[in-house]
Amino acid sequence: MAAELDVVNLFFIAGATLAIPILAFLASFLLWPSVLIKVYYWYWRRTLGLQVRYADCGGYRFCYSYRGKPGMRPSILMLHGFSAHKDMWLSVVKYLPKHLHIICVDMPGHEGTTRTNTEDYSIQGQARRIHQFVESIHLNRKAFHLVGTSMGGNVAGVYAACYPSEICSMTLICPDGQHQSETKFDNHLQDLEHSNFTLNIPLIPTTPEEMEDMFRLCSHVRFKIPQQILQGLVDVREPHNAFYEEVFMEIIGEKSRYALQEHLHLIISPLQVIWGKQDQVVDVSGAAVIAELVPGCRVDLLDNCGHSVVMEKPCRTAKLILEFIILQQNARSGTKKSS
């Protein structure tokens, strides 16, 4: 009888041990989805071997994650888009070789990087701040490969034009700027301007329904996201919405809107442009505009892909970036040998 009771107790303890994490997960999913999202990013960073660090520069703090050390291949600095954060690159980092030195930084004011004023949120202002970050971690001791998507692509382009000696090659993913055809987002923007910006900004959702609409706008691939996760994403972003509005107004202003186009003629490093053919935010015709202004520009257009290239086609994006880096490095090696 005592042995039977021990077995019952053992099963009870085992069941309780299993039930606690399951109940904790269910409680987080149903009651605190925003907490679950943060844990998810923490777990994914840990799984991929990324470490989070801070760089302080005269009272200004940058938050970034990194993996690997400088080696034979150029280091890669990745700049995210509007209202995103460094962890948006995790899906791409997953498909990049572990020996590469990769750095993903929170853009000025975003996530763990210091918030200051609108001067730092213009495309030119962000480029200056990113240069400050690069110098603070001594990344520019050797020329590196710069990657930027959307707003981060604009910043990357301006950076390469202003600090050409620091960049060995560059990838721009659907950067905002001049394009030949209007998109769904262009129509939204016109409505916003006509309303004197009293309407909600599609890229700053305040409800789960608006969050779902934003995903539909930015992504050609239709992701089935549970309502609780949508609510969690809204909860994570909501405290920062005033800041996002400030940045949005700055980057669509005259000073920033055409900053990339105004600097393209100054870019001398090899350039790769990646774009989703079904982009509803910035039309894919923008790739041809850039290619026309930058001689030798490589253009990779992705089928069945919208504006969220990094989220929709992470494996393909990683492969294209790596191919371009190796191609340019081999070309430089060949030039050195021939000379």
Short note summarizing the structure:
Helices cover 49% and strands 14% of the residues.
Outline the structure in words.
There is one protein chain. The protein is an alpha/beta fold and 339 residues long. The protein has one domain (49-333): Rossmann fold (3-Layer(aba) Sandwich). Helix content is 49%, strand content 14%. The protein contains 14 helices and eight strands. It has helices spanning 2-31, 33-48, 90-93, 123-136, 151-162, 184-194, 208-218, 227-237, 241-251, 254-257, 259-263, 285-293, 309-312, 314-338, and strands at residues 51-57, 60-67, 76-79, 102-105, 144-149, 167-173, 271-276, 298-302. The chain is globular, with a radius of gyration of 22 Å. The chain crosses the membrane at residues 12-37.
By CATH, the topology is Rossmann fold
Please tell me the CATH architecture by its name: 3-Layer(aba) Sandwich
**How far is it from the N-terminal to the C-terminal residue, by CA?**
89 Å
Radius of gyration over C-alpha positions, nearest whole angstrom: 22 Å
Q: What helical percentage do the residues reach?
A: 40-55%
> How do the helices and strands follow one another from N- to C-terminus?
HHEEEHEHEHEHHHHHHEHEHH
Strand order of the largest sheet: 1-2-4-3-5-6-7-8
Number of domains: 1
The first-level CATH class is given as Alpha Beta
What structural class results from the helix and strand content?
A: alpha/beta
Count every helix, treating DSSP H or I runs of 4 or more residues as helices. Answer: 14
Biggest sheet, open or closed, and with what strands and sense? 8 strands, mixed
